[in-house]
Write a structure and sequence with these properties.
229 residues, alpha/beta, 6-stranded parallel β-sheet, 6 strands, 49% helix, 9% strand
Length: 229
């Protein structure tokens, strides 16, 4: 999967085509956003997604995230899935994601192929209960989230809840204290990458925050903490 989001349809199309030509099997795409007072209407957004789909010819994961500042209603997402058949995967990471996922699945039916959640999987259990196909977490602990999904899909909800409760403190720390810095710091600690610096103007992770993160990670021993050794 390759993200090709951009407020310019032309640039998003170029990025999508470039990714598809080099082997991408799925694209991630936010709606076009220009700022709080300059946004595309629903028709223009469908045109944006449609042109990207036509250019790349591979499925699109629609990213419904607060970062864009664009409200994507459930009726609009269903309309998008109907009018742009390649855009039938959805990453829902807005507040009350479970309720939105449930409504999306109920209204869209079989045209909703891949309803997913995101936001570091911090609401994964509720979202799976609502019908999500899976989660799009960070790369910090996907190996530890897999059992949650497997148990849930296998009908063992209690086992899924126990597996999720075990990893939730680390997910919460990542989501609320670190953001994207968490994966970089754990991978650096695990020898997977050499540098955990983030680009300016983001602040580097505070040493005390990093220490708390690594302490929680060591208790769970995810692959990201040991893969490089």
């Amino acid at each position: 999967m390759v993200t090709c989001s951009h407020f310019s349809t032309q640039i998003a199309v170029q990025r999508a085509r470039y990714a598809a030509e080099r082997g991408a099997s799925l694209l991630m795409l936010m709606p076009p956003y220009h700022g709080p007072s300059l946004k595309a209407d629903e028709g223009a957004m469908i045109g944006h997604f449609g042109r990207v789909a036509d250019a790349a010819g591979i499925p699109i994961m629609v990213q419904d995230a607060p970062l864009s500042g664009v409200t994507l209603t459930v009726p609009f997402l269903v309309r998008l899935a109907c009018e742009v058949p390649l855009a039938r995967y959805f990453k829902i990471e807005v507040p009350f994601a479970a309720a939105k996922l449930r409504s999306l699945i109920e209204l869209g039916g079989e045209v909703i192929i891949g309803p997913f959640d995101g936001e570091e999987a911090i609401t994964m259990m509720a979202d799976l209960d609502a019908g999500a196909s899976g989660t799009m977490s960070s790369a910090l602990l996907p190996d530890l989230l897999r059992p949650v999904l497997d148990h849930h899909k296998g009908g063992s909800r209690q086992e899924a809840a126990l597996a999720y409760a075990r990893v939730l403190p680390l997910i919460n720390f990542e989501n609320r204290q670190c953001g994207l810095r968490a994966t970089k710091s754990v991978m650096a600690e695990g020898g997977v990458i050499k540098c955990e610096a983030v680009r300016h103007p983001l602040e580097q992770i505070h040493p005390a925050t990093r220490a708390g993160l690594i302490e929680l990670a060591r208790e769970l021993n995810p692959l990201s903490l040991r893969w490089g050794h």
